[in-house]
Amino acid sequence: MTNAPGTNPDQANAAAIAEAAPPLQQRSRWQTAARELRRAPLSAQFGMIIVLFYIILAVFAPLIAPYSENELVGVQYAPWSDEFVFGTDQLGRDMLSRLIFGARNTIGIAFVTTLLAFLIGGSLGLLASILGGWADQILGRAVDVLMAIPLLIFALVLLSIVGPSWINLALIIAVLDSTRVFRLSRAVAMNVVVMDFVEAARLQGEGLSWIMAREILPNILPPLVAEFGLRFCFVFLTVSALSFLGLGIQPPAADWGSMVRENATLINYGDITPLLPAAAIALLTVAVNFVVDWFLHKTSGLKE
Amino acid sequence: MNAVFRTILQRLGFGVLTLFVVSIIIFTTIELLPGDFAKSILGQSATPETVAAFQRQIGLDKPAPVRYFDWIVGVLQGDFGFSFASAGALGGGQARTVLSLVAPRLANTLFLASMAAIIAVPLALALGMLAALYRNSLFDRIVNLTTLTSISVPEFFVAYILMLFLAVKFPIFYSLANVSLDTPFFERLARCALPAMTLVLVIVAHMMRMTRAAIINLLASSYIEMSRLKGLSPWRIIYYHALPNAWAPIANVIALNLAYLIVGVVVVEVVFVYPGIGQLMVDSVSSRDIPVVQACALIFAVAYVLLNLLADVVSIVTNPRLLHPR
Question: Cβ of A171 under 8 Å from any chain B Cβ?
Fold first, then answer.
């Protein structure tokens, strides 16, 4: 995305233009980014605004929320009113405030988990592609085995051993999900490892970590960034599902998955309040998908 | 035919190997339990004798490979051991076998899953093919947007929306799917309507998108273009030229999504309080009833591996290159 628009195949021509009119060249990175954002399709812009909105909610939760996360402020299951915009939950806590704090907990944990999955899966994938041979075989087979069991089921088994808590949840899902990251990063890195400049770096005597981080990583970044968005959605939905099942983020922390479960009885009275946290989950996933769609299109277009 | 046979045998061999490894993983989980686990299951008041009896019952006094062998032989005969939930009754009470807990619920889950699959598979294939044939039309775009949205939302969101509108606001269906063994067939169908509908919505979206992609991929290949340029009728192109090569991707799509059903079923059963194996597994994870968790996980994993194996076999059997070797 940061490629300057001047990198077109007609090298000689471009060089000539550069000599003739230097001031036209070199937009700063920020300018290029701003330009790309303005040109993005409506769905992607909508997605980015939503994502930004969620980030602001998550970061400034204590400032925005009218009440604190766990304060008992009213009667149980109070209806929507001026005082409590979305009513109160099963213990009498303000629903709106918990929704806002939920953004912080749910998104935060999903984000950390995805980051961890990329650290593990990405570095192992790069390692497998560079080392090849036995290391590649062993890592590949281990990943095959881990992927032979559906992720949610595997996570349930491990949670039954270590007991539910948010740290266990994040670690388990990060490890299980890193298998998918491993597959992708190994596959894309394979195409780069065989290139001459990697060979040159090797002959020059650069260490493993230099080759991984400075030679290969920059070249496989765009597909990994797009994958980060998709994996985040997947992790986010899995974390929410497990929290909904009562095995993820534990009370009293506000979390969208468990909020749906805790207030589910209201559905039987035709009240849509329990659907709000579920809708918050859905909206963020859709928004991230829109942005990723555009980004994938963008980066694959630039590569041609 | 020989080549087909050999490839299938290879796949089956690999499948058996995968199942073996999966069973080892699931067995190993019990090894990871902390040492004082017996105490936390039996309660702090447990006497040393009860703890010892409990450990003997789950076989902790024998080395791990022996225990694995005992366990897997038992499992192959349908004996998954005893539920921890009844371990407190060690003093002489009746311990419940895992099998007696799992068996009736497995039947329920299979009923719900097959109900969803019977509706979802033809629907998704038809929608996917139509979207591929009329791609970039208004129909294609609407279907695309709807499915992109519905794969992005959590299963429980779909489930509660259906419950809110089809059971509470307009009471057409039952809001809870509490069936028992002696529920008559048609009432069972009616009670399962909403959970089945949720599962259908969730997997149709995936399945339809994958079918569309597979068919578009196929229609873009040059031999299809050739037959079109020859002036063949669209029906002939699809039936004689595209379909023989389409079976493999379609089988893959179906198997992948039926495997996806496994995950969906866990959440949906909890929402609708359906007495299936998914709900049993969630309950057992909360109460840390490891033998039951192991049994459920093994059943889910075996179903998953077998479905993927089936897809492989179907794509081998329908592969024109293997069927008509030169």
Answer: no
Q: Is the backbone peptide bond immediately before A252 cis, with ω within 30 degrees of 0?
A: yes
Running DSSP on this structure, what letter comes out for residue A110?
A: H
> Measured between CB atoms, does A42 come within 8 Å of chain B?
no
User: Do the Cβ atoms of B266 and A247 come within 8 Å?
Assistant: no
Q: What is the pLDDT of residues B14-58, one digit of tens each?
A: 888 888 888 888 888 766 766 556 666 666 666 777 777 776 766
Which among A38, B225, A92 is positioned nearest to A83, based on CA atoms? A92
Inter-chain touch A148–B305, beta carbons under 8 Å: yes
CB contact under 8 A, B175 and A268: yes
List the domain boundaries for chain A: 41-300
User: Among 2.40.110.10, 3.30.565.10, 1.10.10.10, 1.10.3720.10, what is the CATH number of A41-300?
Assistant: 1.10.3720.10
Tell whether A246 lies on the interface with B, counting CB pairs under 8 A.
yes
User: B316 vs chain A: nearest CA distance in angstroms?
Assistant: 20
Do A171 and A116 contact (CB within 8 A), yes or no? yes
Q: How far is B169 from chain A (nearest CA, A)?
A: 6
HSE value, Cβ hemisphere, 13 Å, CA-based, for B79? 8
What is the ipTM metric for this complex?
A: 0.82
Entry pTM: 0.84
Find the mean pLDDT for residues B272-283: 90
10 Å CB burial of residue A156 (0-12, 13-18, 19+) is buried
Query: Quick one: pLDDT at residue B215?
Result: 82
